[in-house]
Amino acid sequence: MGVWTYGFAVSGGLCVNGVFVCTALLRYNFLMKISAKETLGQKSTRASEIAKRLIRMYKRRKTVLDFGSPWECLVAVQLSAQCTDKRVNLVTPALFKKYKKIGDYALAPISELEKMIRSTGFYKNKARNIKAAAGKVVADFNGVLPSEMEDLLTLPGIARKSANVILFNAFDIISGVAVDTHVMRITKLLGLISKGAVGKPEKIEKELIELLPKKYWALFSLLITEHGREICIARRPKCGECRVRDLCEYGSTIKV
Questions:
Q1: Which pLDDT belongs to residue 22?
Q2: 85 has catalytic annotation
Q3: Which of 126, 131, 180, 188 is catalytic?
Q4: Residue 180 a catalytic site member
Q5: Which stretches within the chain are classed as H helix?
Q6: Residue 44 has what pLDDT?
Q7: For 56-74, what is each residue's pLDDT tens digit?
Q8: DSSP conformation class of 10
Q9: CATH number of this structure's domain 70-171, picked from the four choices 1.10.340.30, 2.60.120.10, 3.40.50.12780, 3.40.50.2300
């Protein structure tokens, strides 16, 4: 840990050689130095600190996708698969203007839907799922998009990641951690998930739920994605600019 020339206690931490050191982080770093493997409690402390820093770093609190109703949120989320949010937001205004009700999507000719969403990619599959989901909502839920995870998972094209995003952004319900490619990649780099969870969204979500207080579940996913776009870029991570580097298993080993 190096030689401390002088140090004294202050509120919330220690003053070491004239530099304030947070007691919680000092305790965590000390425990990590004497332990070859983190306990669940230590990892939970680290994960929570990462979440707190991300909240301070990024202002976004909701998805960038534009929508005016829970159903439109579902449509936008479906279109965002393998497509940028910016592109989706260019496509949805005309789509939402043409189809105003869920039933309109259920009755829409599939070729017409495909044409309108073509630029989002994988348009045939997306159009089929949106039309089928609309039909199921009309038939099984009286034309109202359900706000329960179990019900959303019965809709074509909706898995847990999409359902978590819809519940949080359209209903303000925190139901879990939405695991996208950014979350899968960055939680591995951070050292927050086990080897057995790598590449497995549902296992990653389960482990993150165990680590994080519920109040951080939805925001953690959202802000990890922001971090992946701004700093922890897949091919060229900016570790030297990263404010969570000292809490990152990968970043702490990189010389910058």
A1: 54
A2: no
A3: 180
A4: yes
A5: 23-34, 40-57, 70-79, 85-98, 102-107, 110-117, 123-140, 149-152, 160-171, 181-190, 201-211, 217-230
A6: 95
A7: 999 989 999 999 999 999 9
A8: E
A9: 1.10.340.30
